[in-house]
Amino acid sequence: MRGLNLTRANIIFTGGGRFYILAYNTKEAKEKISKMVKRSTGGSSNTSGGGFILQLAL
Fold first, then answer.
1. 47 pLDDT above the threshold of 60
2. How many Å apart are CA 7 and CA 43, to the nearest integer?
3. DSSP code string of 3-34
4. Residue-number span of the structural domain to which 8 is assigned
5. Does 56 map to a domain?
6. Is residue 16 part of a domain?
7. What's the whole-number mean pLDDT along residues 4-20?
8. Backbone phi, then psi, for 12, in 5-degree steps?
């Protein structure tokens, strides 16, 4: 949230290990989100069958 300069008002839903945010549709925001996803999933083993899914609506 801080990396995108968003507030708690931008959180649409959080629960059950999921969260949805309302973010800007800019090149800079997309790059930051991409970096966050890579950082969050990089080097982790996925033994629980879970995953990380990024859904974008433009």
1. no
2. 29
3. GGT--GGGEEEEETTEEEE----SHHHHHHHH
4. 2-39
5. no
6. yes
7. 85
8. -85, -45
User: In the chain, how many domains are there?
Assistant: 1
Report how far residue 9's alpha carbon sits from residue 1's, in angstroms, rounded to the nearest whole number.
10
What pLDDT, on a 0 to 100 scale, did the predictor assign at position 15? Answer: 84
**For residue 28, is it within any domain?**
yes
Q: Which residues have a Cβ under 8 Å from the Cβ of 22 and sit 6 or more positions away? A: 6, 10, 12
- What's the CA gap between 48 and 3, in Å, rounded? 28
For the stretch 33-43, pLDDT in tens is: 888 877 776 64
C-beta separation of 36 from 7 below 8 A: no
Would you say residue 22 lies in a domain?
yes
pLDDT > 60? residue 7: yes
